[in-house]
Structure formats: structure tokens, C-alpha cells
Amino acid sequence: MVDWIISDGLTDYDDAVTFMEARAEAIRAGTAQECVWLVEHPPLYTAGTSAKPADLTDPDRFPVYQSKRGGQYTYHGPGQRVAYVMLDVGARGKDVRAFVHQLESWVIATLERFNVKGEIREGRVGVWVTRPDKPLTVTGAVAEDKVAAIGIRLRKWVSFHGVSINVEPDLSHFTGIVPCGITEHGVTSLVDLGLPVTMDDVDVALKAAFEDTFG
């Protein structure tokens, strides 16, 4: 059984990390069930273990947190659903690459419920959507925007951190960083794509897609 927790309001980032670390340790010790925790944060930037200082272009805009998850800079804020996954990857096959692929598949399956085709790109972390409604890139390719981010950490084979899906955040808040170190592509949200989707809608889709993906 996986516990599902949905927090109302905005969750402090440090409090979230403290909870995740404690829950991951309890899962490893066998004293707590696996957990998926759905939150929203106040506006903030997090720096993953591969973050480059130059990619923080507006360091005074929002609080910046050093995160031990993989990846580079990312933004969290109101209107973005963050799904923290505390799962026993050791009991699920001890295959980190397969686990990351499951997370990607989970996000893609969630987006499919809103008729949004999310895609993975080699060398680019996260989930992307093509934007034929936008001008072509400088290379002549169809424009693509990032709709979801993925960044995890494992400790003794238990995961924490997780995924985030842009439902209706203020997209201008992403301009204080180079999201995930990628300059040639943009960021979008479900509402920006023209979908009148609520956070509750996304939560229902996340849970249904999780059960299909992880069993």
C-alpha cells in the first residue's frame, strides 16, 4: 500500500525536505508505508546537484534552496503540482534507470488524461510538448516547451523528491533561472496550453496513472 497525502495551502520547502527524509528513513526501517505527497510551494528556486551558478540569472528574486536531488535549477510555486515520491526502489527491483523511466511514464500517462502528448527527449530531463503554434526555433525545428520536471534522490534505495507538473503557475517566474540548464526551449503549463484544468483534476489523474504505472 502507498499512502497518498495532499497538503492544502503552500508548504515550506525546508519542512518538505525534513518530512521526506524522515519518511524515507522510516520506509527503509520498515516502520512506515511508501508515500506519495502532493504539495504546492511558495515561489522558490532549487539547485540540484548539477546546477551551474550562471543559470541563476536573478538570484534575488525568490529564495534559493540547495537541493540534493539530481538535476539543475528548477522553479516551484503556486499553481504547480509537486508530487514527492517516497518509494522503496530496493523492493521494486533496484534499477534506478527503470525507476526514472517509470516516473517519466507516470507523468506522460497523467498528461494523456487531458489529451496532452508528453514526450521525453534524449539529453533533456523532464517531459516536453511540441508547440507547432509557435515560431520555429533558430535551427528550423518545431518549438518545444517543458511541462513537467523530474528530479529524485535515493538514500539506501528509498527515493525522495520527485516530479512537478505545471498546472497554472506564473510562467514569468521561470525567467529568473535557466530551467534545467536549457536555453533554447521554453516552459508551458496545462492552462497555457488552453486546458481549463484544476489542481484537483490533476491530482485525480496522478493517482489513477500512478496505479497503472507502478501497480
What does this structure look like?
- A hairpin with a 2-residue loop joins strand 7 and strand 8.
- It is globular, with a radius of gyration of 17 Å.
- The strands form 2 sheets. Strands 1, 2, 6, 7, 8, 9, 10 and 11 form an 8-stranded mixed β-sheet that branches. Strands 4-3-5 form a 3-stranded mixed β-sheet, with no helix packed on it.
- The N and C termini lie close together (10 Å).
- The chain has 215 residues and is α/β, with parallel strands linked by helices.
- Helices cover 23% and strands 30% of the residues.
- The relative contact order is 0.20.
- The protein has 3 helices and 11 strands.
Give the helices and strands, then pairings.
Layout: E1 2-6, H1 13-29, E2 34-39, E3 44-47, E4 64-66, E5 73-76, E6 80-86, H2 96-112, E7 119-121, E8 124-131, E9 143-155, E10 158-166, E11 186-187, H3 199-214
Parallel strand pairs: 1-2, 3-4, 9-11
Antiparallel strand pairs: 2-6, 3-5, 6-10, 7-8, 8-9, 9-10
Helix pairs in contact: 2-3
Looking at this protein, list some descriptive labels.
8-stranded mixed sheet, 3-stranded mixed sheet, about 25% helix, 3 helices, about 220 residues, single chain, 11 strands, alpha/beta
Global structural class: alpha/beta
The helix/strand series, from N terminus to C terminus, equals: EHEEEEEHEEEEEH
Mean of pLDDT: 94
Give the fraction of residues assigned to helices: 10-25%
The helix tally amounts to 3
Give the overall shape, derived from the CA principal axes.
globular
The termini sit apart by 10 Å
- In percent terms, what proportion of residues is strand? 25-35%
Major β-sheet profile:
8 strands, mixed
